[in-house]
Amino acid sequence: MQNTFSKVYLAMCIDNVTELAFDDVTPEDPDFPFIQGLAEAGLISSKLSRSDMNIPEDVHDNHILFSPERVIAKALLLKVGLSKCSGVTDGGISSLVARCSDLRTIDLTCCNLVTNNALDSIADNCKILECLRLESCSLINEKGLKRIATCCPNLKEIDLTDCGLDDAALQHLAKCSELRILKLGLCSSISDRGIVFISSNCGKLVELDLYRCNSITDDELAALANGCKRIKLLNLCYCNKIIDTGLGHLGSLEELTNLELRCLVRVIGIGISSVAIGCKNLIELDLKRCYSVDDAGLWALARYALNLRQLTISYCQVTGLGLCHLLSSLRCLQDIKMVHHGSASSLREAEEVEDALRAEDRALP
Which residues form the F-box/LRR-repeat protein 15-like leucin rich repeat domain (predicted)? Predict the structure, then answer.
């Protein structure tokens, strides 16, 4: 086998295989060419027939090489995972999708050689693609995404974390009205304008990740709340321009279950109260390093967020009284993370209340 990644696609002549993963495999791996090595790594779960591999009957070696001449004639793949495979190239992707036009999921996470040429090939061949993961593919831009958005109308999930994209890319992506999951973490050039594009046409969105998109403001949250009312998971960590007004808009997201607000340093208890009152289905809330959040926020959570199961309030300005009230009110709460509070005695007091409540629950018939 030559030391080129595209040769691994020869494995796709396996009968009835619908999913293939080569995560973290590189061409330099000594076991890369061998079926046994791939199986031991958990990359192939189905048995290969000798006819599929074009192996002569007189060959009995357990370490069987892939045949470079074997044509991919039975490509039934629906999902291929190539996450962190450093040898993946545009040419390899082109060869893959030309033979596997029924692919629903393509994972190219951290395949940093991939460019718009690969996206063009995917767009030309995979018309029913539903999931595309491109995290840390820094060589792609809005031109490649325009092709994807135009040619893949069924796209439901796309991960563009750390791709350095801007609002122009989101303007194209907004054509994908079937989008359910959109991950844009670390794309610091994205602003309110880009999110307005998404909000205007992606009303089926249920998960949005804006981690460290620090140009986002309250205006974006207003657009989001108006256009994407089905959102269940929202990550706004380190979007430090957001203030209580923005969280007030989130209060209209009645289906919201998971909200990450880590390090929103300008948010205080009023904003948390708005979320607690409006988002009755909230299950997980992360307020770590929201330094200005105080007991007012906890009191609102205690009264309204009755389904809350996980809460992180490390580094928040809360007291033992607020913690005690929270713990005594939220009977569904399973996990609370709280470190670096001002008063160790307050924390101990809250922990004692929590222990007492758990003991009471255990005593119930």
Answer: 84-328
Cα–Cα dist 94/29, whole Å: 23
Q: The tokens of 257 are what?
A: 């279950």
User: Encoding tokens for residue 28?
Assistant: 């330099």
Q: Is residue 18 very low, low, confident or very high in pLDDT (cuts 50, 70, 90)?
A: low
3-state helix, strand, coil in the chain (%, to 5): 35, 10, 55
For 223-334, list the strands marked E by DSSP: 233-235, 258-260, 284-286, 310-312
User: Residue 147 half-sphere exposure, CB side, CA atoms within 13 Å?
Assistant: 16
CB neighbour burial string for 141-161, b if at least 16 within 10 angstroms, e if fewer: bbebbbbbbebbeebbbbbbb
pTM comes to 0.80
Mind listing the pLDDT tens digit for each residue in 38-93?
333 333 333 334 344 344 455 444 433 333 223 333 347 899 999 998 888 999 99
Q: What's phi and psi for 182, nearest 5 deg?
A: -135, 120
| Domain boundaries defined on the chain | 1-106+117-128
Residues 309 and 285: beta-carbon distance below 8 Å:
no
Q: What's residue 99's pLDDT?
A: 87
Kindly tell me the number of DSSP H helices and DSSP E strands found in the chain: 12, 12
| Cβ contact 152:127 at 8 Å | yes
Q: Tally Cβ neighbours within 10 Å of residue 319.
A: 18
Mind listing the pLDDT tens digit for each residue in 284-315?
A: 999 999 999 999 999 999 999 999 999 999 99
User: Could you tell me if 121 and 94 are in contact, meaning their C-beta atoms sit under 8 angstroms apart?
Assistant: yes
Which residues are CB-contacts of 77 (< 8 A; sequence separation ≥ 6)? 12, 17, 18, 19, 20, 100, 102, 103
- The residue among 152, 151, 118, 153 whose CA lies nearest residue 134 is 118
Dist. CA 306–CA 282, nearest whole Å: 8
